[in-house]
Amino acid sequence: MSTLLYIESSPREADSYSSQAAAIYLDALPNGVTVEHLNLFAAGLPEFNAAAAAAKYKVMRGEALNPAEESAWSEVLALVEGFKAADHYLIAAPMWNFSIPYKLKQYIDLITHPGLTFIPRPDGMEGLAGGDAVVIYSRGGNYGPKDGQPDPYDHQSPYLQSWLGLVGVRLTAEVAVQGTMRPPVGADSHLDGTRARLVELAAGIGAN
Ligand SMILES: Cc1cc2nc3c(=O)[nH]c(=O)nc-3n(C[C@H](O)[C@H](O)[C@H](O)COP(=O)(O)O)c2cc1C
The whole model's pTM is what? Predict the structure, then answer.
């Protein structure tokens, strides 16, 4: 038995290409994988506000928290616990202004703290989450490599790669649904080019 945390970050539900691609992956998972679904636009995430920021710095310095900071930090701890409980991750991320939607960044800001999801070591960062991740991107345009070089406007993939590395989650694969604002080329659906890969990745979960 293992647990997969599905982090959905489009608010567009059935219209969302990243969510539709995630559904293909989830449908193909083998028996024995329990899915926890975190819909970030429906989750009512707390703000990472002044009390939360003060708590973060005080915890780092080993100082006592006031009641407002205790309250903010307990919400952070609950989210961190939920994140770290998973063995596998599926992150579905639309491109918004070359990067990830703000709710996904808010979630990352809420759960990424020294001593909780990573530890700074003299020779670099030690991630504490563990597990492996498949990341699905959906993009109105096409941000694949150009002339063998990464697209300089793609701030989704480099950012999530860095963050997953920081928190110690191994990136198994990235799957991009691209050109979603244009009619599909040579296919019935923008998803057709990714379907087989998503099924293959789900069937081999944990094996790569
Ligand atoms: C706020 C917002 C910003 C967007 N910014 C970009 C962008 O920078 N580049 C791009 O190619 N498409 C952009 N798009 C289009 C989306 O990436 C595209 O519609 C994608 O399919 C959204 O993912 P979803 O279908 O899972 O919701 C943007 C859409 C929204 C709503």
Answer: 0.97
